[in-house]
Amino acid sequence: MKFNEAAVFKWVLIFAVAGGSAIGLALLAGGLVGALYGLVLAIVGCVYGYRWTREWWRGLKGPEDRPDDSDSSS
Amino acid sequence: MESASIPLPHGAGGHAAEHEHHGPPEANQSSRIDRQTLGILLFIISEVMLFGSFFASYFFLRVVVNPESWPPHPFELPVAVAGMNTAILVSSSFTIHYALEAIRRGNKTGMKLGLVLTWLLGLTFLFVQINEYVHLGFSDRTEAFGTIFYSLTGLHGAHVFIGLCLLTAATLRAFRGHFSKEPEKHLGVEVPGIYWHFVDIMWIVVFFTVYIL
User: Among B58, B91, B191, B201, which lies 20 to 30 A Cα-Cα from A66?
Assistant: First the structure.
């Protein structure tokens, strides 16, 4: 999993769809319903974002990235 | 003019003098992410916190202070104009993504087109925002509502302005032929692109919060 422009662009699409649905619901059913729906989306997004970031970070730190111990002995 | 050679300390010269590299040694990189991308990621995390504090103020004023109506009578927010502006900014994310995809394929013309379009869309967004400010009918001193409205949208507008400056630099460099398809050779487009997407995402949240709710 990479952190690059393409990955962030996917987040733009996710936010656009989520924001669009929240805007539509708020206009149709009222501000309070839209706010609660937006809150649920924000919580789900935070959990998903946290898990995505954790997985991404684990993917970055492979064994080959660890510093070589043989250099520190000299 | 010849460049001055700096004598290396005993034991550090030898092979090092044969290399092409000048200046200080390359910094150690302990992860697979390049430092520019990591830098913009950390910067965005700090920006999320900054926006979070402004949203906290907004919801405090709106929910805890609980005025009779929001926006306070007789003020109204131009939702349609802001909605059009949202569409403009979301479109600009597509154009910058197109620019990045173009340079990844080695298409420099496509990259330049995407960058110029993104820049124009960003500038349009900013002009529409300023025009909106002029015709709103209230100022930042009009109750707490006016203050938080201008603070939130103004904070975002400042980010759009910074993004435009970054895009200007990227566009100028693109026209000078600084970028190519290798991943490390177009970071000057990729990093502003990530920032621009962040600005776009923040606007979707600001628009929903300020104009719709």
Answer: B191
Looking at residue B163, its pLDDT comes to: 94
B208 vs A8, A38, A65: nearest CB: A38
Q: Helix (H) and strand (E) counts for chain A?
A: 2, 0
For residue range B181-206, list pLDDT tens digits in order: 887 888 889 999 999 999 999 999 99
Contact B192, A4 (CB under 8 A): no
Rounded to two decimals, the ipTM of the complex is 0.71
CATH number for the segment(s) B32-212? 1.20.120.80
Does any CB of chain B come closer than 8 Å to the CB of residue A28? no
B33 conformational bin, left if phi > 0, alpha if psi -120 to 50, beta if neither: beta
Closest CA to B82 of B120, B131, B116, B147: B131
From residue B132, alpha-carbon distances to B74, B78, B124, B147 in Å are: 17, 8, 12, 15
- Residues B109-163: tens digit of each pLDDT: 999 999 999 999 999 999 999 999 999 888 888 888 889 999 999 999 999 999 9
